[in-house]
């Protein structure tokens, strides 16, 4: 009796600690981004200004969207390797259905999201019901989806995105590009969904401890499947936007997003072992990666050094965001106060 | 050990002898059971306009009479992993291929397998990318000086002064390296030219657009862009940053880029430049050459003469001419916007070498109704210079490697 | 009990391999020639070694994405150095292994002692290694000695060198599994906390799993250089996903504690063989990926089903 009480107590404190350590992680990552944007003035005088910030935000928006899905999947202790193929699917379906007109856009986009959610759901089904490792299931699904896209388009995706989507990607309101506004809205929705909704709490519980979640009456398998479905839909949405951005789809359009989507999530302080995730951290991770790459582009160093520096920054960010570091920071803070 | 090595050398020498014998014996009569030539079309990956157009051209030619009766064409996609292509080549050789027309993934890694195939009497025709094994034919524009000529064209546009971006291809790729070395050879001669950003765009419009946007954030005052394929994305990035300012751009052959070059509104904003670079039509030329050799209409070439140059396309703003029909007629070289996507690579036809083709051939791989295969002109083969690591292994770099061939310097360094 | 041992020893994947090989031999009789078999194993070896390396890390419950970077890096180094003859090849091997072990040690240190999540840390080291590879070798090329190109891909007294190497690795695992280190590796994978309590040095075990992995990746890169007789700064990229597919095909559990290096060797060989089979039955090239994906899922389901039956029999 006594023992069980103390365990519960311990768990409570751990929960509280985890919460504040997550906030510190998020703060740290954003300070890094701000530091880097200001620091980039040293690289080039025209950097570090509003226009660079806008470019970074704009280019991050695609990554932020697919990283949300990846984050959910990682939270339930999985990994989604089908991100690249789902982006391609979104792009290919949108140019195929839209054929360069605005007709029927209202059901085409939801339709694409639904189809991809279904594909993601199948991955989730294989993982939860058939106990196929997430790695294999999502990789196989990625191969299958890619190959269907390849066969269906015979190598060349045809058609164009709807003109209105094109215009959307290029328009600005008060100097802010519309995709940035869309991203901000999505960040609010996604954060609410992940951290402040019943759905998010349940998902968190599944990630923390599936057995306990099951006992608590959470339908673990259904929650897990929905994480994969949402991830697939997010990637497809990124694909639709990318096709509108580049005015057409290609079959390899998603390739550049798989590893960055994982990197954004882990740099953002989420635990790959599940149960610890915060979307604002992920957004910070995505911004950090994009800022870094735009800064290195401007630096004019060779690709080799550029790549090395990117890796080093990720590693340093990871080292700074370790839980122990926060724990010691916290204890220092407590002692001094 | 040395014994074994020696034995290996003897075997090698013997194999070499056999292959020369085999080469002398062409045309071989190794047809498939149904009396057709078994030809493999081996691709790296399919998924961008360039790769599928090049493949479609070969597919269309193989269905054009009389090849529709005499050729069995099998398409194989190996992806981006050289090991996969090695494995696929081995399978093709084992299946009794008569010829393999291929986009090779690596210039060195396939050599051993290619040599093995040659020894079995298989004809290898590489298009666009090359291999350094001398028994394979390389049909490519790579040695035609894309990098140095476009660089000079850009320098000319900029009057020898200005900040420029380099939008490169795929990191660690020998073609990208060759182009960029050629370009830098020119840029380095002009102290007024400053390369302020260099980024990899993977020969893709979207990546070019994103990477150019990043570079523009740091250098909004750029004066020109030297680009490899994906150049249309650079225009979009410039317009996105400032819809009233464009700069001179040199790039490859996308339809969108050519239309933009000829667009007066864009010209007024500052766009000028030249469209050159890799033509998908190389695949068709390689295939027809191979078939002529297989059928005995053309002598095979000695091993040190198998690097065949495809001329560098060169279209500046003033040369852009819209095609009214579905072929390159009357010197036209660009299609109207509603016919093909902007990423469509225009150089799919060649009125002299490939009169059989039409737009449907490039887009869908279907033959042109009523067309028949026309023989290639007798003296069509132009030897390419040897370039170590590109199309030969133990050869010397020619002294005039980066000599300008297509454009002249109008500004002195 | 015997059945369980069979399932754990990777016999399932061996059965799958033999089945696919039989099918392949049936549709393509020339597949059974000595040349074809030697070629097949030469082509399989790099992936087999990479998968064997990754298995060490996965067995202790970790994850190692650095495989792609390490292979690129070592491959580039091998191609840049010019050593000839048998001695040169041995010297090169020593250098390759040193580099691989060094990368493994960095991974191991960051993951086991600095407690950074394995997937995140190895993502970073993978990117760094790729960058360094590009610094060493700017474009594919370089020099690989004739000895490596011909002897290492040839045969020794009739047996392809590739098969000998793979067998040696399988033997290594056979011995290693029976040592304390081997038992610790699996124990940590099953339950790190329990292992810690029972006195196993968990961090040390994790650290050394990365060392083994690094060494085997280096070996993979070394033989890749011999196979392609060239180096490439992006040589490792295709290995990233294939390696893990091979490990999963071999039936090793992601999350650790169950599986075997030998099974991963066979899993990798199966993946390569599958491509051959698909080619010879003439699957339309657009849909090759689809079939590959489905076979991967089916193979995992199959070995899972066998495991299930085995477990039930054990319970009863």
Word description of this protein:
The complex is a heterotrimer of chains A (337), B (413) and C (316). Chain A is mainly alpha-helical. Chain A has helices at 2-39, 50-75, 83-98, 105-128, 134-153, 163-170, 178-195, 198-208, 210-215, 220-246, 258-267, 279-299, 303-320, 323-336; strands at residues 172-173, 176-177. The two termini of chain A are 35 Å apart. Chain B is α/β, with parallel strands linked by helices. Chain B folds into two domains: 2-141 and 280-311 and 347-364, Rossmann fold (3-Layer(aba) Sandwich); 144-276, Response regulator (Rossmann fold, 3-Layer(aba) Sandwich), CATH 3.40.50.2300. Chain B has 13 helices and twelve strands. In chain B, strands 2-1-3-4-5-11 form a six-stranded parallel beta sheet, with helices on both faces. Chain B starts with a helix and ends in a 49-residue tail after the last helix. Chain C is an all-alpha fold. Chain C has helices at 2-8, 11-27, 34-59, 67-80, 85-113, 118-136, 146-151, 161-176, 180-190, 192-197, 202-228, 239-249, 261-281, 288-315; strands at residues 155-156, 159-160. Chain C has one domain (2-315): ABC transporter involved in vitamin B12 uptake, BtuC (Orthogonal Bundle), CATH 1.10.3470. In chain C, 75% of the residues lie in helices and 1% in strands. In chain C, 58% of the residues are buried. Chains in contact: A-B, A-C, B-C. Chains B and C meet through helix 1, strand 2, helix 4 and helix 7 of B and helix 3, helix 7, helix 11 and helix 13 of C.
* Multimeric status of the protein: heterotrimer
CATH topology of chain C: ABC transporter involved in vitamin B12 uptake, BtuC
Strand percent estimate of chain A: under 5%
Give the tally of β-strands of chain A.
2
Shape of chain A: globular
Identify the strand order in the major beta sheet of chain C.
Answer: 1-2
CATH class of chain A: Mainly Alpha
Through-space gap between termini of chain C: 11 Å
CA radius of gyration of chain C: 19 Å
Subcellular location (chain B): Cell envelope
InterPro entries (chain B): Peripla_BP_I, SBP_2_dom
GO molecular function (chain B): carbohydrate binding
Pfam families (chain B): Peripla_BP_4
Features:
heterotrimer; A: 337 residues; mainly alpha; ABC transporter involved in vitamin B12 uptake, BtuC; two-stranded antiparallel ribbon; 2 strands; 1% strand; globular; disordered N terminus; B: 413 residues; alpha/beta; Rossmann fold; 2 domains; six-stranded parallel β-sheet; six-stranded mixed β-sheet; 36% helix; cell inner membrane (chain A); transmembrane helix (chain A)
